[in-house]
Amino acid sequence: MSKKKGKSAQQQIAELQLKRRSGLIKVIAAVAGLTVLIIVKQNLTAAGVAWASGEVGSYAIFAAALVAAGFAGYGSRDWYKAGQKIEQLQSGMRKR
User: Fold this and answer.
1) Domain that holds residue 34
2) Is the residue at 10 inside a domain?
3) Taking phi first (over 0 means left), then psi (-120 to 50 degrees means alpha), and beta for anything else, what does residue 49 get?
4) Looking at the 3D structure of the chain, how many domains does it have?
5) pLDDT at position 96, please?
6) What do you get for the CA distance between the two ends of the chain, in Å?
7) pTM of the predicted model as reported, rounded to 2 decimal places
8) Is there a domain that residue 13 lies in?
């Protein structure tokens, strides 16, 4: 019976590692996406596009920053919780 539990724990650890990697990718994607958006806005402003240097552009960047912060927050939460669960499972396996 203990072999079945150990195998199940190994499977859970593998799934949690995927979830942890996915959380990290979400954080990186949010930061990279916002960085690209800011660079595009700066280039449009330098090119003389009126809406990019006005209130509309500023509001768009602000809204994108809020969305990116939320997306990154969920990703970091997933990464942290998966890491904590992996540590719990591994410490339980070591005790056996």
Assistant:
1) 20-95
2) no
3) beta
4) 1
5) 66
6) 13
7) 0.80
8) no
